[in-house]
Write a structure and sequence with these properties.
Blueprint lengths: L11 E10 L3 E4 H4 L7 H8 L3 E4 L6 H16 L8 E5 L10 H9 L5 E5 L5 H15 L5 E8 L17 E11 L8 E4 L7 E3 L3 H6 L8 E3 L1 H23 L8 E4 L4 H10 L7 E2 L3 H4 L6 H11 L8 E8 L3 E8 L2
Parallel strand pairs: 4-5, 4-6, 11-12, 11-13
Antiparallel strand pairs: 1-7, 2-3, 6-7, 8-14, 9-10, 13-14
Helix pairs in contact: 3-4, 7-8
The structure holds coenzyme A.
């Protein structure tokens, strides 16, 4: 019997470049509270959010993703033709099929690339980085582009006081490629489908169509239960990612958790006993919770503001609807 050939790729991988797209509309809490019984003070105290960005009409999932992708490729010094794989993490591309990744790949000029979407909600970005790194190490791709992009304003009920102030829009992208030294640590990931109902769309599209008064199936969330889960269970996952990468909290320079709620970030940092020197991402204050886009947006802001520099060791940890989670240690590009 014939034996099939198999491939191997680069021994090590790294993030070669990062790019972002922040939509143009800045929405302060004062505007959000016009539709809900709430206050700027309450929102800032309970979530850390001062303002968020919502996309304008022409800022689509595709256009924001393309903006972030082009910047990531430019900073990585990589041409679109060198990208073999485009992975897009999103839950707000409104077509069930085809994947928006194919349209993005075409627009950025990498038609030859494999292109597909993944649905892991707020955990999506880290769910994309892990297979991208593995594809490069396995020789299935020379370089991969991972994009987290959301237009959550489309799925947000502006009259729901449990969610209206949280969700936001934006895109972040990274180029993953070969490296002389390890730049992306082993992933620690998993899910807890018993809690499937905690964050989800109100109803599925068939129910919308069958309704006498069709409404967008907005996101609904049991905020308190999500808060407790994220604050306590996720610190352990972060520690496991450090252990698997062979580093300790003392080696860490930067902590970039999914930007869900500033109090969740603080609770995780306390539980993990992060030393004082570790800089913590706080992009949520001005950007809101952008789900799959939040980690690259937060990391990029830290780089731009000089809080993270090339070569720093960063812990990324993403968690959300599903409930799904993924974490890995990376070297800042
Ligand atoms: C949504 C969230 C900020 C709510 O904060 P909370 O402290 O859990 O608030 P609770 O739901 O326990 O409500 C506390 C009180 O505030 C009130 N409240 C709820 N929403 C409010 C709002 N938008 N404005 C003012 N008051 C509000 C409640 O009615 C309640 O009042 P009561 O004590 O008189 O009954 C918080 O649960 C959270 O951030 N959860 C995680 C969300 C998240 O990260 N989601 C994405 C995961 S990827």
């Amino acid at each position: 019997m014939a034996t099939l050939a198999s491939t191997t790729g680069a021994q090590h991988t790294a993030i070669l470049g990062i790019g972002t797209y922040r939509p143009s509309r800045v929405i302060p809490n004062a505007e959000v509270v016009e539709a809900i019984d709430s206050s700027d003070e309450w929102i800032q105290q309970r979530s850390g959010i001062r303002q968020r960005r919502w996309a304008a009409e022409d800022e689509t999932v595709q256009s924001m993703a393309v903006g972030a992708a082009r910047q990531a490729m430019e900073r990585a010094g990589v041409d679109a033709k060198q990208i073999d794989c485009v992975i897009v993490a999103t839950v707000t591309h409104m077509f069930q099929t085809p994947a928006v990744a194919t349209a993005i790949a075409h627009e950025i000029g990498t038609d030859q690339a494999a292109a597909f979407d993944i649905s892991a909600a707020c955990a999506g970005f880290c769910h994309g980085v892990a297979p991208a790194a593995d594809l490069v190490r396995a020789g299935s791709a020379g370089r991969g582009l991972v994009i987290g992009v959301e237009r959550l304003s489309d799925l947000t009920d502006v009259g729901d006081r449990g969610t209206a102030f949280i969700f936001a829009d934006g895109a972040g992208a990274v180029v993953v490629g070969p490296s002389d030294t390890p730049g992306i640590g082993p992933v620690v990931w998993g899910s807890d489908g018993e809690q499937f109902d905690l964050i989800r769309q109100r109803e599925d599209w068939r129910d919308v169509v069958a309704s006498d008064n069709p409404q967008m199936p907005h996101l609904v969330m049991q905020g308190n239960a999500v808060f407790r889960w994220a604050s306590f269970a996720m610190a352990k996952i972060g520690q496991q990612a450090l252990d698997r990468a062979g580093v300790s909290v003392d080696d860490l320079d930067v902590f970039v958790p999914h930007q869900a709620n500033m109090r969740i970030t603080d609770a995780m940092a306390r539980s993990m006993k992060l030393p004082e020197h570790v800089r913590i991402a706080r992009d949520i204050a001005d950007q809101g919770n952008t789900s799959a886009a939040s980690i690259p947006l937060a990391l990029d802001r830290m780089i731009e503001e000089g809080e993270a520099k090339s070569g720093d060791i960063a812990l990324l940890i993403a968690f959300g609807a599903g409930l799904a989670y993924a974490a890995q240690v990376v070297v800042v590009p």
